[in-house]
Fibronectin type-III domain-containing protein (Methylocucumis oryzae), 281 residues
Amino acid sequence: MMKKCLGIGLFITVLWVDVCADSLPAKPVLVAPVATITAAKPVFQWQALAGALAYKLVLNDAETRWINQVVTSEQAQCAAGEALCKFIAPVALPVNSYLWSLKAKNAQGYGLAASKRFRRGAPDTPVPVAPIGDITSAMPQFQWQAVSGAESYQLIVNNADAKVVDKLYSASQAGCKQSGKPCSVNPGIALTKIAHTWQVRAKNKLGASPWSSAKKFNNLQSCLATLVQDNTTGGCHVRLQEPAACEEIDLSNGKEYLLGWTTDGTYCETPWTFLFGRQSG
């Protein structure tokens, strides 16, 4: 057949090569597995190609070829016009990273191969998003980026004295819909201290990811204060009024705090709302 293509002349040859190339199957579109999985025998899925009689599936890790098999369209359950072909791995895969490739075959031969990588193991480390820096809520929403293969997430929050939150959330409880998209939870615990750190890690049946980097935030809770006339200095004292948690703020022993107000009052009798935050450094 190739001799006939080459013996008719340059113009005809170019046309013949085009016809030959077009008659081969297209490169398959691979669907799964990708990213991180937990199944020992994953289901390989790809989009069915019209006219394909079979597909060659190859799976390797860095050292071993685990699958090298021709799968007919019937075996892949896509011979009758189904949109997706599916094939269960014939061997159990250990925890490792893998590369799988697939090419389709029709009466003219094999087309180009497509390939995807995946990993069987514990999830990757999630990336924390919020809260970071200064906030004004005693019950903040915690957000991080979802990771592939995670079945649950563990959240911990610490202040200088103790661990105040240590909770495990399923991926659905945290609203984790897609890898790289935000997860969000509210532990429902009011924070009474100012400085906090928090971390999150992902888990599945094969293990847990490393903890994320620790993120810091300052709970600068709004505190209503009244300025009281100080007759000895001509200045004003600060008297805390509400909420009750503000009474725990210690302004003694030379500790310095950042104070900011949210009204433009200029007299000691005027109630001002202050934000109290520990001066860093």
